[in-house]
Design a protein that fits this description.
The protein is an alpha+beta fold and 79 residues long. It is built from two helices and four strands; from the N terminus they run βαββαβ. Keywords: Metal-binding.
Length: 79
């Protein structure tokens, strides 16, 4: 099942932080579409929950040294 995951982070302070997070999240197995919104301090991704969970993604971001304040998961409707 595909899911849309949104991670609310602490304020991002530099564009290189955004790039580092985007790269780390994008390189995870099961992650398809990643966007890091600098001004909103959010990470949005579409994942395959058979391969990775929202908690796994949050851990990837936390391991880079950024606090994840909130995680939101939404099922993606498939036709």
């Amino acid at each position: 099942m595909k899911q849309k995951v949104t991670l609310q982070l602490e304020d991002l302070t530099c564009p290189s932080c955004m790039t580092k997070i985007q790269s780390a999240v994008s390189n995870q197995a099961g992650v398809e579409d990643t966007k890091v919104l600098f001004n909103a301090s959010k990470v949005k991704a579409v994942i395959d929950d058979d391969q990775i969970t929202a908690d796994d993604l949050a851990k990837v971001v936390k391991d880079l040294g950024y606090d994840v304040l909130k995680t939101k998961v939404k099922e993606v409707a498939t036709a």
